[in-house]
Amino acid sequence: MNLVRRPTPLGAYRARALEDPFGRLVENMFEDMLAPMAGGSMMPQWANEGITTPRLNVKETEKSFEVEAEMPGVKKEDVKVSIENQRVTVEAETKTESEQREGENIIYSERSTRKYLRAFTLPSDVDEAAAQAHLENGVLTLSLPKKQGGSATKLTVQ
Length: 158
What we know:
Helices cover 12% and strands 33% of the residues. The longest helix has 19 residues, at 21-39. The chain has a 4-stranded mixed sheet, with no helix packed on it. A 4-stranded antiparallel sheet has the order 2-3-8-7, with no helix packed on it. It folds into 2 domains: 11-48, no CATH class; 51-99 and 107-145, Immunoglobulin-like, CATH 2.60.40.790. The protein has 1 helix and 8 strands, in the order H-E-E-E-E-E-E-E-E.
């Protein structure tokens, strides 16, 4: 049972008969269709289908951040990691295709594609030049040293 009433672009046009589960299903379908136009985003919700958000463990030490991301089936050459100040983005894609051997008659074949995408912001800047990445057994490990801040400058108030 849905106890929270959400604002909807169709609220003024909604008949009271739509309070049944089927009515809510239809209403949600229209909300999903109209939400990209109302929210300013031009990407529909279904555009993100097929993208997996890898699970993360983030640890902070005095000198660095240690990040572990689960990305099963990914090869190291398919992983892209970008770092810009505090923002870290991890991307990867896996493709699995079946091979057809001579003399085989394939009746049915499934191919699998999975994209991983995760972006997150750390509490302080990262030293991009000293950052390291390692992939082993489907776990991407990032070692992200903190950028050493300069000394504070004191100003004289005039």
